[in-house]
Design goal:
With about 400 residues, the protein is α+β, with helices and mostly antiparallel strands. Helices cover about 25% and strands about 15% of the residues. The strands form 5 sheets. Strands 1, 2, 3, 4, 5 and 6 form a 6-stranded antiparallel sheet that branches. The radius of gyration is 21 Å and the shape is globular. It binds heme C (6 copies). One heme C binds near residues 117 and 149.
């Protein structure tokens, strides 16, 4: 049955199409020069006609689904449980402005595999803010989401494509305006901006004008994924609320990360990336959002392997592994972000047997250690030969059921 609250969605979807420059930029139009720069990015739809297999399989992936309009992305369980569970009512308050909101007001949803968060307007910034609760798909419960930071200046870098900061308050470092070319992780997040490639005349020119992660060293391949699959604390750029950001938007205001860039070299004096910078080891105690980043207990000290204690830090787990140190494996040895030349390169199930005997399994050596929600974790990528007991993870749930 259709929920009455979902009426009026058609209007919201149109709004989503109009705001391809990003929601913050929509409120106050960015300077013309900056707009022109965004034209380097053409969006995933523009790749479809020539790369049908890659497009189709990417569209089915979670990269393409991380930020969705409410209509297509909201979970069935979320709609059914929004306000009906008397003991644990659904979200009702904006994180930043404390304004009151309802299901109807949700513009976008973020996440669907482990958890879902909800975006509503923020009339203070003209951008978006989160509601005060998130949905845990394993427990089927609402959880408090008390983080004050808003979407535009805290999350966009890793959840959109072609993100750029357009304006910063010089005195405080707070991000005032940002834009992106596309919501979610599009083709150009891993291949760089595609305008020149699309218009290039022949196959030779096509190859020259686009970045293919397969063509660089294994270390650089992992950095392409590591740009988002990390945890950092950024003192150069702050959120709109004045807290350190947790991402690395670009070397300079107005610029954007391009796949293949070595982001580990950007402003090292202003950013902490534990395990990446030599003076920031895995086994130190960090403060702020980096507190409790890695398991630092006796088991970790004994093995010298510090498993991920939070989610989205696969790169920092992987750097500690014998896999990374062997210089033979990168993220894309095991993961194929989409079908290549017509079929998926590797299936997770068979990811170990091509190199190891049958005692090496995902279940044994990739325990769920990185917390993403209450009692819900993502798999460790340290490949510790003395693995920890596992928590619950994605494999303990079926695939997400969307409302539509
Ligand atoms: C008009 C057709 C066309 C469009 C549109 C197009 N491509 Fe291509 N692409 C090609 C051709 C042709 C090649 C070269 C194929 C070959 O010789 O292997 C290619 C090759 C590539 C490669 C491999 C490069 C290499 O080093 O081997 C990547 C990656 C790629 N395209 C990504 C994209 C992305 C991302 C988009 C959208 C931004 C896109 N393409 C849009 C035609 C197109
Ligand atoms: C622009 C940021 C970004 C980049 C670059 C990126 N990812 Fe992701 N990745 C994400 C986000 C955000 C999610 C969460 C998607 C979700 O759960 O809805 C994700 C999810 C995943 C997942 C789990 C979901 C699934 O489809 O199984 C895998 C595996 C993954 N990424 C691998 C990679 C690899 C490999 C690369 C490099 C080739 C890469 N990612 C590059 C942001 C990124
Ligand atoms: C440095 C990059 C980065 C930043 C910054 C970031 N994320 Fe993520 N996020 C990821 C990646 C990568 C994943 C998927 C891998 C994982 O969860 O281990 C993810 C996963 C998620 C998921 C779970 C997706 C699912 O399908 O269950 C949600 C929800 C989410 N992020 C919301 C946010 C919000 C809200 C913010 C801002 C407060 C934020 N993220 C900031 C990289 C980032
Ligand atoms: C999360 C990162 C990521 C995203 C998103 C992504 N790609 Fe790729 N792409 C790769 C990697 C890594 C390779 C290298 C081959 C491999 O490992 O699959 C690749 C290879 C390619 C190739 C070369 C031929 C082949 O299939 O191996 C083409 C063409 C391509 N991608 C097009 C696209 C298009 C079009 C999209 C969007 C619809 C897209 N890619 C989205 C990471 C990505
Ligand atoms: C492309 C080949 C390849 C694949 C695929 C692969 N491994 Fe490995 N694995 C290696 C190499 C190389 C080493 C390092 C060996 C060394 O340093 O002696 C290694 C080491 C390990 C170690 C550490 C062993 C030790 O004694 O320190 C573990 C655990 C491990 N792999 C688990 C896995 C699991 C689990 C998978 C599947 C998800 C997997 N591997 C997939 C090549 C691979
Ligand atoms: C040796 C193989 C291997 C390598 C190398 C590897 N992964 Fe994975 N990864 C896996 C397997 C297997 C899974 C579990 C997939 C499943 O259960 O569907 C996984 C799961 C994930 C997930 C989802 C987490 C979860 O709980 O399912 C993300 C995100 C991810 N990998 C990102 C990365 C990134 C980023 C890199 C590089 C820094 C990387 N992986 C390197 C094998 C690998």
């Amino acid at each position: 049955m259709r929920h009455a609250a979902l009426k009026g969605l058609a209007g919201l979807v149109c709004l989503a199409l109009l705001t391809s420059q990003g929601v913050a930029a929509e409120a106050k139009k960015p300077a013309r020069a900056k707009k022109a720069k965004d034209k380097e990015f053409v969006g995933s739809e523009a790749c479809k006609k020539c790369h049908v297999a890659e497009f189709k399989s990417w569209k089915e992936s979670f990269h393409a689904k991380i930020v969705q309009p409410r209509k297509t992305g909201i979970l069935k369980d979320v709609v059914e449980k929004w306000a009906t569970d008397g003991k644990s009512p659904g979200p009702a308050t904006g994180n930043v402005t404390s304004g009151a909101f309802q299901l109807d007001d949700v513009q976008y949803v973020v996440g669907s595999r482990w958890k879902q968060r909800f975006l509503v307007s923020n009339d203070k910034t003209g951008g978006l803010q989160f509601l005060n609760k998130q949905f845990n798909r394993l427990s089927g419960q609402w959880e408090n989401y008390g983080n004050k930071n808003d979407w535009n200046t805290m999350c966009g870098t890793c959840h959109t494509t072609g993100y750029r900061i357009l304006e910063v308050d010089k005195a405080s470092g707070a991000t005032l305006k940002a834009s992106w070319s596309e919501l979610s992780v599009g083709c150009e997040a891993c291949h760089g901006p595609g305008a020149r490639h699309v218009s290039a005349k022949d196959a030779k020119a096509k190859k020259r004008t686009i970045f293919n992660p397969a063509s660089v060293s294994v270390e650089r391949q992992s950095k392409v994924c590591g740009y988002c699959h990390i945890r950092a604390e950024n003192e150069l750029y702050k959120t709109a609320q004045g807290n350190p950001r947790e991402d690395l938007p670009a070397p300079k205001v107005g610029e954007t990360y391009k796949a293949g860039d070595d982001w580990t070299k950007w402003y090292p004096e202003h950013v902490s990336i534990p395990g990446v910078h030599p003076d920031e080891p895995f086994n130190a105690e960090y403060k702020g959002d980096l507190k409790g980043l890695f398991k630092l207990d006796d088991a970790a000290k004994a093995s010298g392997v510090y498993e991920e204690a939070k989610h989205h830090q696969q790169y920092q787990g992987f750097l500690q592994s014998a896999h990374y140190k062997s210089g033979q494996l990168s993220c894309i040895t095991c993961h194929s972000p989409h079908a290549g030349k017509g079929k998926l390169k590797k299936v997770a199930k068979d990811a170990c047997s091509s190199c190891h005997d049958a005692t090496y399994t995902v279940e044994k050596y990739m325990p769920n250690t990185g917390k993403t929600a209450d009692n819900l974790f993502v798999r460790s990528h340290t490949f510790n030969k003395e693995p920890r007991p596992t928590g619950k993870g994605a494999a303990d749930m079926g695939p997400p059921q969307y409302y539509e």
